[in-house]
Amino acid sequence: MAAAAALRAVKGVRMVAGGPSLAFTRSAFVAKRRNYDRPNWFGVGLAFSTTVALWALLFKQHNEDVMEYERRKKEAQHKCTGCS
Questions:
Q1: pLDDT tens-digit profile of 39-62?
Q2: How far apart are CA 39 and CA 49, in angstroms?
């Protein structure tokens, strides 16, 4: 019971103090209407260039994986006893 009373007292003090004002809690965000007539070309370019770069890395990695697979497959079919 004493803990509950202490919690109520702390909540009451916080209510009296007012807590953080709205000026400080919303200062990090700017709310404005989107302008669809003027797109954010930097953001669009960044998104598309990132996509292209990731696809290029994917194809490069895939080609390297296929070459490694073919090399290992060829190595497994090699039956020479003098190589080992």
A1: 999 999 999 999 999 999 999 999
A2: 16
Compute the C-alpha angle 19/23/27, nearest 5°.
120
Residue 25 identity: T
Whether pLDDT at 80 is above 70: yes
Q: Which amino acid is at 54?
A: L
3-state secondary structure of 29: coil
Count of C-beta atoms within a 10 Å radius of residue 83: 7
With cut-offs at 50, 70 and 90, classify the pLDDT of residue 81: confident
- % helix, strand, coil for the chain, step of 5: 70, 0, 30
3-state SS, residue 81: coil
